[in-house]
Amino acid sequence: MIFDSEWLTEHLDGAPDLDTLAARLTDCGCLVELREAGDGAEKWDVEVTTNRPDAMNHRGLAREAAVAADAVMRPLEFALEETGEDAASLASVEVEEGSACSRYVARVIRSVSVGSSPDWMQRRLLNCGVRPINAVVDATNYVLLELGQPLHAFDLDLVRGRRIIVRPAETGEKLMTLDGEERELDPSMLMIADAGGVIALAGIMGGADSEIHEGTTDVLLESAHFDALSVRRTARRLGMRTEASHRFERGCDPEMAAVACDRAAALIAELTGGRVCKDRIDVYPQPWEGQRMEFSVAALSAFAGLEIPTQRALEIFRGLGFAPEGQGDLIAVTVPPFRVDIERVPDLYEEVIRHVGYDAIPSQLPILGTTPGQRNPNWELVDRAREAAVSAGLAEVMTFSFIDPEIDDQVTTGPLCPGAPLPLDNPLAQNQGTMRRSLLPGMLAAAGANLNQGERSLAYFEQGRVFSLGGDGPEEHERLGVVLSAEDGKTEERFARLKGVVEHLIDEVGLPAVRWVRGGAPWLIADAGAVLTDDDGTAIGLAGMLSAELAARWDLRQDVAVAELDLARAAEPAPPRFEPLPRHPAVTADMTVEHSAELSYSELEEAVRELKSEQVSSVDLAARYTGAGLPEGSVRTTLRLVYRHPERSLTQDEVNAAQESLRRRLAERLGITFA
Amino acid sequence: MSTQRLEEVRSSFLADLESAGADAEAVEKVRIRYAGRRSGLLNELTAHLRELPNEKKRDYGRGLNELKKEIEAKLTEANMAVRDTVVNAEPGQIHVKGHPSTVSVGTAESRIDVTLPGTPLARGAEHPVHLVRRRIEEIFLRMGYDVEDGPEVEDDWHNFEALNIPPDHPARDDQDTFYLADGHLLRTHTSPVQARVMERREPPIRIIVPGRVYRRDSDLRHSPMFHQIEGLLVDEGITVAHLKATLETFLHALFSDEVDVRLRPGYFPFTEPSAEVDISCIFCGQKGCGVCSGSGWIEILGSGMVDPRVFEAVGIDSERYTGFAFGLGLDRVAMLVYGIPDLRQLFAGDQRLTRQFA
Predict the structure, then answer these.
(1) Neighbours of A116 (CB within 10 A)
(2) Which residue of B217, B244, B251, B276 to mutate against A (max A Cβ within 10 Å)?
(3) Over residues A37-59, mean pLDDT
(4) What does pTM read for this prediction?
(5) Average pLDDT, stretch A305-312?
(6) If we measure between CA atoms, which residue out of A675, A454, A422, A414 comes closest to residue A558?
């Protein structure tokens, strides 16, 4: 809220200079964020926290300032002259909905002549960001900014039947508010009505039909106390936020309603030449009763970690209007009506601590058992996955957890679909309408953006959660996604690079062994994609070259290899165990096999592993050839076998014999020939 | 002849073997000379044993056995070395056993411009937000805090009500919330994990909770998705002084011992009293700059003593225990530490950004 520095200090005796005052206010919790020159005074933007509506006006902030800066609050003084004519004879107030309106104060001011307000008032209003309108309205706004009580002035002649009725709206009722909007009302909303219908939204805004205008002579001034929740709900429902609703929502002072009404009536009389009728109309069936609270200064000191003298605590509460009484270690206070935030003893502690100042509190580390900190296993898992990806040379990216529902549809038909979609009720944009069920859409959008930035090769990963709706409600799954792309290279090489990365990740993360099964539509090219399945055939990942259709969707003009792994099945990998180093040399022997392309490498390798001599310590792919010199549909595969005996050196003859035997058995098993 | 002869043979064997080096043929010659089955010196020495008087047989026999073992071991070793290594070497050309072709070692085919750049290493890189998270985790792990985790899709109870933010509370305005179709919501802060941990654990509790959070807001300084880290300590006799010291210790470890830490009264529904925490501007030394908007202070975290209502909501005895909580934006710290101007850049998936942190 913006304050006028002159208006603020006007309420104080013995205020320090403005610099000191601003610093002291900041120290006690009213952060003076910005100070700038205004008309005749400084304009201060003070951040008053939402629980302190009592300080959202000049007098309220001055009360804080007085305690913070050792100044004294001046009493609020103004002169109010009343005529002999009784206000109650000119208007009546009925409150039907007492729970939402605990007090309704009204005054009648007659024979006003509505002109503009004087310069001094306009200057202050403008400094605080309020546009002057006319003397009557300006006076109500002035008192709002000064005392925090929202007020409303009706043209009494336009109040039908001269009756004010506080009641819920009836279904179908409408009201044209002061801002020129027609509002549709419903029975959950509290209204000010007259004999003919609604004339104002209680605590939010008046109606256009009863507004003060140049010809207004008699004014009915409303100063009421509306229930915070009722105003808040109505304001939200209508999408409105006014100075009045802002304060009522946070809680106003029921006692202030009368004072503010008098103050505004006096101002209106002074500014417009009007005459204030005798007495307030005041519907206040259950007057405020102050809550008494008691606390121990020793307990407060123990809580703060600082010895606080009883005298100091008493001073603070006196200054804040709590009428404290001290008896030994105990202090009893009465919570003033403007302090809606004080409900329990810790709330009182806060009052003392913030005025004593955090600076005064010593620093003392707590003493607890010397137990080591533990990381939640999920953090261990995702960090293991992230570290594995970094060690594979990938850069980490983050993309939004919500994506375009249209793109999310791809997930439904693909492998790794975690469950039903989980849409947002109130997304910021249509293309952020649903929670992602796969990391790939966000990562591919990023691929497009990276390529557009002129990046020629992509190598990045994302680790994050995907979301879905399962049988028992929303579910979250940790995933790891990879995007690789290079300007040139054969598809096989691109795929092999991706597979190398994915195999490394599976290993490091501790995922179960997987089978690479051709598939992965609609994400992947049918001929260059795989679904990674575990022993039970459950998909735990997919990897391959992005399909042309999806590449086109994100306008990717070069081949992109993608992979996504579900981390749910990961277990912490066992620590490595040392194996005695071989003492005898190994013999390497290659074996070249010519076979149909229908026979997959993994089938060939599995057969070799099954049929090989026990002295073979490793089987690896050495070369793969297809093309000239080979029949259509044939492949030539060279495997490299390493033979090693634990106790002695093998001779070339022994190895030759083992190779020969393996060839024979492979030929029987797979019907293949040897080059 | 006596054990003296054994020593002579040992010395000459070792000398011969050394001069044979890794030359397979030479090693083989040494083997034949000493351990050859027909004419090896060891045969001769063994034959000598029979000619000795009985009283000398024992010492000589023991010495002979040792020598045999040593010679066999050394020969095996030499053979191992020979088998897979250099067979024949001359300057620049080395013939290696098992490799038919000649490998060039120690020569260059052409003169190299040593100022040419090296082959770039494909280094991976972590996202700056995670770098900051790990740094903060480390600090608190060393102080004995556990690192906790919780769901990003939350219910109203844990995100709001248990934290003393009932329905229609004005504080809900400050945390514009994304709602999901089934009444769940995306957590607006990491604090619901506090509530979850307190529901299942007894004090003393000492945790930090990093994580992803969501608010319905987007501009230069706000992203609908961002990251926080939250801390909570609950035990008997925890005081405001403990909170203050803990935050100072943490901020000194994170930034530098030189930064000043300032606590200002603030307001959060789940702490009472609450404090906003500022550090002295690390960029201008409090002279005033763009980062601190001229104030000399940077707002860095929010904190306070746990409101007893929160303890009561999660079933912790608020008469017996007190505690403190604090929270800060990881993205904000990353932006501050690394000088990243736009929050939204962190979530654009731009690999060029991350590569800077390799």
Answers:
(1) 13
(2) B244
(3) 94
(4) 0.83
(5) 96
(6) A454
